[in-house]
What does this fold into?
Amino acid sequence: MKRLKLTIIMIVLIIGVTSIVDAKLRVVVSYNYIADIVKRIGGDEVKVTPLSKGYKDPHFITPRPSFIAKMRKADLLIINGGQLEIGWIPPILKKANNPQINPGNKGFLDLFSFIEGIDVPKDISRAHGDVHPDGNPHFHLDPENILIVSRAIKDKLIELNLSKKEIFIKNYEEFSEMWKKKMADWRKLLEKFSGKNVVQYHKNFDYFLKRFNMKQLGTLEPVPGIPPSTKHVLEMIDIINNKGAEFIIHDVYHMKKPSQFVNRKTNVKLVVLPHDVGAVNEVTDIVSLFDEIIRRLLK
It folds into this structure.
């Protein structure tokens, strides 16, 4: 009888350990581009839940009660960082009461911490608009940075599930090889714009422009998050007329009237570019995000 009880206990323990080892890691991410990278590296070993929609303004995501439940069950929370989520992730984290995924703990990953930020302000003041103290947070629009953060994601998945290390490494290496080939193609396609002047509405694409050697004349927003005044728009028109510009770049979520007005007055091409997976119908993953950006620039 004792041997039977011992056998039953051992079976239960083995089943329990096996289920823990084989269970999928529950990963919650702030944005869709992160979700796609995690799926590519984690494969069948992860269950990924993005919190935002790709067509939304990433600065202003409305927290929902469902977000709390998702974070409460998560093994890992991955954020873009650079204080891009500062207005909505912290209150959800607090209500979820899941210490494992709090900043500084094992189940938390801030991707911006692996990036060398640009546009770091010399002083912090509301006079500068919605300034990010750590620098411009839209780093993922430089394709080189995708390789950096994908490596960080691979390392974190291994840390949380060492038994699947070989799978994560294999998937990462395949993704990395594919991505490097795509980057070579993108560089070749964008060579014609190297050194060209560009105007943006908002500073979404600073990393992208820097990577492909395009020069930013300015933004239609006088400072980040502040709608353009008539005076500022007219000043930008004068700058464009004097120096010339290849594009006026606009995102999918800000009002387009100022950019459309400048387009009419200067006859400079207005291009609406996606910033995340799901921002437009054509962008279904991280690869098609850059394919579509470049297709629209070349169109």
